[in-house]
User: Fold this.
Amino acid sequence: MKRVSLAIVFACCTLALAAQDAIRVNYKGAKPTIVDFASAFLFSHDEDEDECDQEATGWVEYAISNYLKGEPQEEWVTLTVDEKNGYICCESRHEDYMIRAEMCYWNESDGKHKLFAYSSWLFQNGKPHLGQYDGITFFRYDNATKKMKMCESPGFDVDYDNTSYDLPRTSKDIIVTKWDDNGNKKQKKTLKWNGRRFSL
Assistant:
């Protein structure tokens, strides 16, 4: 299947989420944590939701569920939860393949909103093996309503042509990596966060 058609499939999956009402983010304390955002995103689907959405995030949902219950992860799953920096990374390895899913959020400069992102990419022997479930999705959270809703990528267009996106753990910027047809890194650039959107 050509890369462009895979991008269309991913777009259809995310559009199903976009059609939903805003997702309520439940939390305890003064403000939501990255675990609260992740839980809202992962556990908000309906029972009759399209299989596409469930397959794309189901394995991460299972890992977060184990984390919340205090249960060990499967031996092929590595989960990193950094609440202080608002970052989660979940990796699943099988033979030569590794799926890497990241989640993080940014505080917007207006003090009224937050931006949450989910990014997932498949690699084989350390090189991208991009498929239908790869991509990056953004949600905008409203502090007043305590709900978030899918939004367009703020300030840039997502490139699905041999391109992957790394979310920040300690900085605020997104790293974009362009790969050649042999799976070698061709170019890297940084999308800088200005408090509302990203720019080069």
